[in-house]
Amino acid sequence: MGWTEPKSNYTAESQVKPEIFNTLAENEKYLNETKITIGQVQNAEVNSTQSATRENVGDKETVKGFFGKVRKWFADLKALAFKGSVGTADIDNSAVTSAKLASSAVTSTKIGTGAVTSTKLDTNAVTTVNIADKAVTDAKIDSVSASKVTGLAAVATSGSYNDLLDKPSIGGGGGFFSPTFIVDSDAALEQWADNDKTCDFSKVLIKKGTWKCNKEIKFKNYRGGQNTCVGINLTQTKTKMVIGEEGSKLYFYVADTSTRDVYGLSTEYGDSKKETDKGYLFYGVNVEVHGANVMTDQSAYCFSSCCNLIDCTAKSDNAYSGYAFMSCMNMTNCSAEVNAQNAAYAFFGCDNLTRCVGHANAWNANRKWAGGSSVGFRDCENITKCKGSATCTPATSDYTAYGFSGCKAVSRCSKNETSSTATFTSSYYSNTRDDAYACANTANGGFNDTANS
After folding, report:
1. pLDDT, tens digit, for every residue of 276-312?
2. CA 209/CA 35 separation, integer angstroms
3. How many angstroms separate the CA atoms of 453 and 442, rounded?
4. How far is Cα 270 from Cα 301, in angstroms, rounded to an integer?
5. What is the dihedral of CA 319, 201, 216, 252, to 10 degrees?
6. Would you say 213 and 189 are in contact if contact means Cβ atoms under 8 Å apart?
């Protein structure tokens, strides 16, 4: 029994005959027997043939045709389409080139922090052949510091001359000077003061700039013991030559309440130099010291027991007792300034001085000192064409200040500034204390100008 197509050409005049109902009944029975259930649709199998080419699905497709097109799209997908992230192995060699990247497509702001690390790059991933011409420019590497580059020598990252091997000769001091150590920072100055055993301090160059140090070190004293002071122990560091560039300064200091002396550049007791000593030179060295004045006899020295000084400058400030040059010899064109509380001496116990200038000031003199509370040149010998002066507060018969005091072999010297007491006292043109040769503007007086006004 099959489907009987009902007639559709009835008219108003047509009669309703029993056959009509038979047809309807038979058709209903057919539908009940041949209907498709939901379960049948869900489990129905579709036979399809994969399309030969990738085509988009149209507005109307047969079931068979629809699945054939879908099958072609899935068949052409590769494994990379189903990965959550892309690894280096998934990218073909030379797949990414500078020519394929738009200008500024990859910038530092588009790359997350830590996105590109050495562990994420294969060995030899970046080679010369993989970098396009002009891809790396100065502008692009300005922010790359030397510390980020491996394999560099120590001097490349420290910038310190002291890390340089095969150091070149540097002009200075009237000839060629090959420094073994350079002071170009506070750290380098402290390294020198600390007598770092890994360094050679025999020839030191001071670079332009002010370098500061308050490193406490040990000095042997006349009792055989040791004093703890701030400065450089030239005996321990075995330093024989020091040259300062123009504009350089060494600054040694202690706190105002400190109980330590400041020794600046000094040799220790028992290492006194002779005027015949060779190989020693201090050229263009500028030393300033800041001492403490809270305790009696707290002292600050700039140079002590140094030999062969040319164009050196010293300034001692703030200490109870201040000394610029102490027990030095063979000095030319050196200048000194001292400002101390109770006792101030620009040049003390120095020999063989030519064209040196010194001024000392004691700003709170309250102790009697034989020879003066403040003196430009004190107990010095063989002094030629030097200028000295000194002042003190108060200035009385007990608290005196002289340009030259207790000096011998003084020739053609004069005042620097006006001294509180006098330019000369107990100073002589002769090598002995002979009043016939007391300093004066005469032949016997060594043509020393004693005017103090």
Report:
1. 566 789 999 999 999 998 776 789 999 999 999 999 9
2. 104
3. 18
4. 17
5. 30
6. yes
